[in-house]
Design a protein that fits this description.
Layout (H helix, E strand, L loop, with lengths): L8 H12 L6 H17 L23 H13 L9 H9 L3 H6 L2 H15 L5 H20 L2
Helix pairs in contact: 1-2, 3-6, 4-6
Length: about 150
């Protein structure tokens, strides 16, 4: 569960209403809205927030990255390359945390990275969804042709 920090904006906002609006007749309505917002924030767990949940054993064995994992890692390194990175860590984290629980739980670590890269490049206007779909169709066709020729 999300733990409220002392500097959480909602706590500060609620405290601000209590201090500065003591004579305001609309105060109970405003506080009710803030309490509802706090309830939503406190009771909803981010898809990445697994602390305290039963999840089974953690595989702590080192493994040699596959070629696909290495390529995904290389793409991310290129996207983050300074002095003009296209992606920063916070954006990547935000995008991964906003994945649907079904996708997040059903995807491998690097699949989430690919999804984040895809969404961020479209969000930033670097690529359009149509360009991504066209390239994906080309790659799928190329692999289908390779499999058929085997």
């Amino acid at each position: 569960m999300h733990m409220m920090r002392l500097h959480d904006p909602l706590i500060l906002l609620q405290g601000s209403f209590a201090r500065h609006n003591s004579s305001n007749r609309a105060q109970p309505a405003k506080l009710a809205i803030i309490n509802q917002m706090e309830e939503v924030i406190v009771t909803r767990r981010a898809v990445t927030d697994l602390g305290g949940l039963p999840a089974g054993p953690i595989d702590r064995h080192e493994h040699e990255p596959t070629m696909t994992e290495r390529r995904i890692d290389a793409m991310m390194m290129l996207l983050r390359q300074k002095p003009n990175p296209l992606v920063i860590s916070d954006e990547n984290r935000r995008t991964i945390e906003s994945l649907s629980p079904e996708f997040y739980e059903g995807s491998a670590y690097y699949e989430r990275w690919v999804a984040a890269m895809h969404f961020l490049m479209v969000e930033k206007g670097v690529l359009s969804e149509a360009e991504v779909e066209k390239k994906l169709a080309e790659v799928k066709s190329r692999y289908a042709d390779q499999e058929a020729s085997r």
